[in-house]
Design a protein that fits this description.
alpha/beta, two-stranded antiparallel ribbon, eight-stranded mixed β-sheet, single chain, 6 helices
Amino acid sequence: MADADTVIAAVIAAAGSSSRMGGGLKKEYRPLGPGIDDAQGRPLTVLGAAVGAFAANPRIEIIVIMVPADPDSGEAVARSALPSSALLNTGRRPRILFASGGPTRRSSVHRALAMLSAYNPDYVLIHDGGRPWVDGLLIERTIDAVLRHSAVVPLLPLTETPKEFDEAGFVTRHLRRSSVGGAQTPQGFAFREILRAHELAAEREARENYEYTDDAEVWGEFIGPVAVVEGSPKNRKITFPEDL
């Protein structure tokens, strides 16, 4: 269990171009759907829903939102996509910060962690801004688990039988559903260790052509084991227009 001095931060990764949405407004800035409004009666956006879920948790003190460096889709647009100006009031918890992302998701998260180092948090949750249906129960499960294990990833059981295949299009391994799952976010980590892991990942990327799939992989390569917590079927990721 955390003591009263434990500081938990969150990073919302929303710096991508949303190229698979087919152009137009970035997915994080789009309304969730007709009739889905925030408390002020404005259309609730994908980003607004994601940030709001973390802002509602009293254990989270700082939120860093990663946005594109392009001013046409950067901080000003992200601010307007949030559900209430009250979220941007630096006099209340959580404190909301913005930072420009890098060329990849991993580098964007690395920049957010570097910014957070000035606030010296103990733990950090890293969440995809394109997952607006994250709920408070999953956030609580992740926080509780990271306090116990230092690194945690939410997983969902697979319903299809997974197969591993090679570049020639042939199956190379027949995997068991009971031992694999689909990774979600938020993923939780001890802060200083995940920052160091990203520093080492950046060094590897500079040496060779390698791209990490998520933060759990970065931790697993450079720090150690990652614990599993139950994911949520509602916590879907928006990738294509029909996902809305």
